[in-house]
Structure prediction request, 191 residues.
Amino acid sequence: MEFIIPLLLLAVSALFVWGLIAFIGRSSGLQNTTAGPRGKSPALFDRMSEEGASAAAQRLDEESHSEVYRYLAVGQLAQAAEVYHKATGVGRIEAFVDVQALYQFPQEHAAETDDSVPLEDVAGSDPFVPADEQEVTDLTVPDEWLELSEPAKQQRFEVQINRDSETISMSSEELPPWIRDQIEAMVRDDR
Prediction:
């Protein structure tokens, strides 16, 4: 019983010291919200997004892009960051953050295209054949395919249930569709 009061005093003082350290750390952190001593951007980790990954992928040429992803595929982020750093010339920390973004949001290599001419996605058009040489063809569907695609005509049938002295008969039109389908499946499967 006599050890409870010193133990409580020790716990309260530890809690007070912890709170004081947290308060001092937070207040000194508010003063240092601008660029750090080595000129790092405060929005460095804002690059860790899908947009950041897209921008990082656009900085790479095709060869370095495939080399970075070769390292990312086996989980070697440090080597991928080194390749990215050498290929783009950004700082090592920025390279590591960009590689993390590429790892988290994979990007295909964006081939440099002429944005003035939009690409057409038209079935039957070959982009490598000039428009004046390309011929238009009509697609024909084989008759067998048309026969298979036609909905099967529902067969009419009657169901008779015999109970003791009474007989109940129902036609297929009177049955709910889900029961009719199950009965047709049982007849089809010979059950």
Summary: Residues 44-104 form one domain.
